[in-house]
Design goal:
173 residues; 7 strands; alpha+beta; TATA-Binding Protein; globular
């Protein structure tokens, strides 16, 4: 079988006004059919708040709108939810990041109807998140996790829009 070169491109975004949590909930429940996420594990020596700030910096580098941020201290859990549209095709995106401090897991996720754009977006966000958390001894402080392992460890964790994620929803691979 011949190999082929593939180019994965992160889409350009614009940030329309008027996004709110009700709109995100409707998009996640009714309109955006593809969803994917990227998980990272971090050691106890790295502060969950530092990881959350790195995740937010990675997402904020895009021209998208922060809609809602939520934090709880004990156990540490923080979420940031964003909305944006691609510049060219006007595809709607909901992007979110969640850090579970007790479990030492961070997640960056996206939902849209443009499955190929989700792939490029998560690849770029993953790179930025890993680069955004320097390890004290040099190298990367975060390690990419497999979805199955992260899902097993986070099975009982509730998030802001937990009820919006049904077990029968399509997931972009």
């Amino acid at each position: 079988m011949r190999t082929r070169a593939v180019e994965v491109v992160c889409p350009a975004f614009s940030s329309p006004a008027g996004a709110n949590t009700a709109m995100l909930r409707r998009l996640l429940r009714e309109e955006l059919i593809f969803r994917d996420e990227k998980y990272f594990q971090f050691p106890p020596t790295v502060s969950p708040a530092e990881v959350f700030e790195a995740c937010k910096r990675a997402v904020n580098a895009l021209d998208i709108r922060l809609v809602r941020e939520f934090k709880s201290a004990r156990p540490y859990q923080a979420e940031a939810w964003y909305y944006g549209e691609t510049t060219v095709s006007k595809s709607q995106f909901v992007i979110w990041t969640i850090v579970f401090g007790k479990e030492g897991i961070a997640m960056v996720a996206a939902s849209s109807n443009a499955v190929s754009s989700i792939t490029g977006l998560l690849a770029e966000l993953g790179r930025r998140v890993i680069e955004g958390v320097p390890h004290k001894g040099g190298g990367a402080a975060l390690a990419v996790m497999q979805k199955a392992e992260a899902g097993t460890r986070l099975i009982d964790q509730a998030t802001l829009f937990s009820e919006s994620f049904g077990k029968d929803s399509d997931v972009a691979e």
